[in-house]
Amino acid sequence: MPSSDPQTHEDYDRLYYRLDLEPGASAADIKHNYRQLAQIFHPDKWRHPTAASLHWADEQFKRIKEAREVLEAYWAVHHEAPTSGSALSDTQRLRVAEQMRELEVRRDRLHGEVDRMHRERLRALAEIARMQTERERLIGEIVRLRDDVASERAAHAAWRENEQAASSAASLAAAQEAADASVEQELAPAGRHPIRNFFFARFDDPSRGWLMTLSGAAVAMIVLFVVAHRLVFSVFDATGSWRWLAVFLQTLLIVAGTVLVGGFAWSQRTLHRADRAGRVHAVPLPARETWQRVTAALRGTGRHGARWQVETGALSPDDEGFELQAVLRYSTKPQGEGDAHQAVTFRCRAHAAGAGATRVAWDFGVQAPTWWLVPAAKVVRDLRSRVEAEIAGRV
Predict the structure, then answer these.
(1) Least C-beta-crowded within 10 Å: which of 309, 321, 339, 360?
(2) 3-state DSSP percent of the chain in helix, strand and coil, to 5
(3) Strand-strand pairing, 306-307 and 342-354
(4) In this structure, how many other beta carbons lie within 10 angstroms of the beta carbon of residue 176?
(5) Are 311 and 326 in contact, with CB atoms under 8 Å apart?
(6) Tens digits of per-residue pLDDT, 18-35?
(7) DSSP per-residue codes, 90-150
(8) 237: which DSSP letter?
(9) Per-residue pLDDT tens digits for 155-185
(10) What is the pLDDT of residue 312?
(11) CATH number, span 6-88
């Protein structure tokens, strides 16, 4: 640490020269030049990595730090610039300035040398990175070639195995196709309602179903309008004083006809979709579990308090399949006011298609007046949803 006693005859001018200042500079100039020189000679800022250069920079940093501390201590006490015991002559001052210029030249030369070494280091690192990239590319190419050879060998081996098993596989496939065809024929439901299936199959066509539906609705509205117009105006005069009543009755007939025709079309479409959904499915479940899921679906659906009654149902002793028929009879009237006059029949058939697999099909039958088809269609829709959730969802 520098001496805090200003009476030691410290050469204050020399301390100013260490900070590259003229004697008598202010405290602000002392702090400013010290910061600039510290950016150059501080060991953490020095840009020349040799041991000798680092030692020299460390010594210089200590010297300028000592000069700053002595001068700032003097300024803190006396609030004026210190004076040295003996002033330097002009010759000494010129020699010191020459030495400083030599030091600056040496510093610039060292900076240039360090910059050149840094550029060479960057070029070397770039070359190393390029060589590593090329090495990784070559390794990837070798791995790809090895995988290609392995895949070619595996394909050749598989081709030989397929050639050897071709004759036996063809015979087994033919036998399996024949068995599947017989099972499909056995399980497929009877082709009932051909006219309904013919029309609604076109309504459900994704490419033009919307056009068919729109056309059918337009034709139905035109027919309803014409029929209602003829019925009403055959009784009322078209220009009489009761024309407003005729128009009201015509509108009422059109609305009622639209509701009836729309309900009938919706129920027929629902029944068609239920029959189409009941085509033969391959279920990854054994026959016994499929039977349990179907009966569970029946127990979970009902209508107006009525429940499904299994009329015929039998699971084969060897669990090769089953056949089930259940009937739901209900009435929309409150209980006790009338007997059930609607019946929905559900038929389900299944046949084992291998280890842990079953082929199953179902269909529906409805016995109800035309004006009760909508509730019956709702029953069919609910049971179809349950069956699909229990069985078809596992397809």
Answers:
(1) 339
(2) 65, 10, 25
(3) unpaired
(4) 12
(5) yes
(6) 888 888 888 888 888 898
(7) HHHHHHHHHHHHHHHHHHHHHHHHHHHHHHHHHHHHHHHHHHHHHHHHHHHHHHHHHHHHH
(8) -
(9) 988 888 888 877 665 555 554 554 454 544 5
(10) 77
(11) 1.10.287.110
pLDDT at residue number 5:
42
Q: Which amino acid is at 70?
A: V
Q: Is the whole model's pTM more than 0.85, yes or no?
A: no
Give the pLDDT of residue 115: 93
Average pLDDT over residues 186-191: 51
Q: Two tokens at 229?
A: 């117009």
Exposed e or buried b per residue across 223-232, where buried means at least 16 C-beta atoms within 10 angstroms of its C-beta: ebeeebbeeb
User: Which residue matches tokens 């040496």?
Assistant: 106
**CA 210 to each of CA 196, 215, 216, 374, 377: distance values in angstroms, whole numbers, following the listed order:** 17, 9, 10, 22, 22
55's enclosing H/E stretch is helix 51-78
Domain residue limits, the chain: 6-88, 188-277, 278-395
Place of tokens 């501390």: 69
Residue type, 267: S
Just give the CATH number of 278-395: 3.30.310.80
